[in-house]
Design a protein that fits this description.
The protein is of the alpha+beta class and 266 residues long. 41% of the residues lie in helices and 20% in strands.
């Protein structure tokens, strides 16, 4: 009989080799003795440790997520505050430009006299143009109407009054304006007046216009500034939007102005 005796030191040196089995013989039979290197843990201890670590890991993950959400919320709040400050600075700068100062007296497309005080308490989107304009004026009025419709569809927002002032009083009578505005929006208000009255309101809003030469049919084109003006419920000029601005961009800007609005008349 062959007897294998392993000294502790020898076993320690061989144990890193991780043999799957030790082979020894007894007579004519071969016996395999399997062995497993001891790791210092009893069976099942590792799984219990993982089970204990699971809740702690989930807690740390939750804390990390909440911390990240807090940082994200703080960043968004700072961004909103920065945008509001920028909007207020822009509004103040536009007010100092003295646009839309003074009053006006014009005739609406229903034949009623209108002045600036009639629009007090309302947000107003105002466009200057003329009814014989071949393309630009219809496009800009359509854009203005889309803005009004977007804002009308949002509950809680105050209504916006769309206004169209002619720069061609010679042809744009109240009757002509009535036929024209009905194709855009039921609340679109057309304003006209004498040449002097139109000149006064266009000077107030820094609007350039000039009638071109007449053709053989006595038709002509009026060259004019292209901009949509926003007036606050105080009746003050608040912002303007050039031709490059989309309806969505204008609507977004109007919402921001509404959110930041604080009356200066009370």
């Amino acid at each position: 009989m062959l007897l294998l005796v392993w000294a502790p030191k020898a076993w320690h040196r061989l144990s890193p080799l991780k043999p799957r089995a030790l082979l020894w013989s007894r007579g004519d039979k071969a016996l395999h003795v399997g062995y497993q290197r001891l790791s210092g843990q009893v069976p099942g201890e590792q799984s219990r440790q993982s089970h204990r670590q699971g809740p702690r890991f989930r807690t740390r993950l939750l804390i990390t997520a909440l911390f990240g959400a807090g940082l994200g919320g703080a960043w968004l709040a700072a961004r909103v505050e920065k945008e509001q400050r920028r909007q207020q600075q822009r509004t103040e700068a536009l007010r100092q430009a003295a646009v839309g100062q003074g009053d006006f007296s014009l005739l609406d497309h229903r034949g009623q006299t209108r002045c600036k005080a009639d629009f007090r308490g309302q947000w107003v989107l105002l466009y200057f143009g003329f009814t014989h304009c071949p393309d630009i004026c219809p496009d800009e009025l359509e854009k203005l109407v889309h803005v009004v419709e977007q804002l009308e569809a949002e509950p809680g927002l105050p209504p916006v009054q769309p206004v169209f002032i002619t720069v061609d009083p010679e042809r744009d009578t109240a009757a002509a304006m009535a036929c024209y505005v009905q194709d855009f929006h039921p609340r679109l208000l057309g304003l006209t007046g004498s040449a002097e009255q139109v000149a006064q309101v266009t000077r107030s809003y820094r609007v350039y216009y000039s009638a071109g030469p007449k053709d053989e049919d006595q038709d002509y084109i009026v060259d004019h500034s292209i901009a949509i003006y926003l007036l606050s419920p105080d009746g003050l000029f608040t912002d303007y939007y050039g031709r490059a601005k989309s309806a969505q961009q204008i609507a977004d800007s109007v919402r921001r102005h509404m959110a930041a609005f604080r009356s200066v008349l009370h």
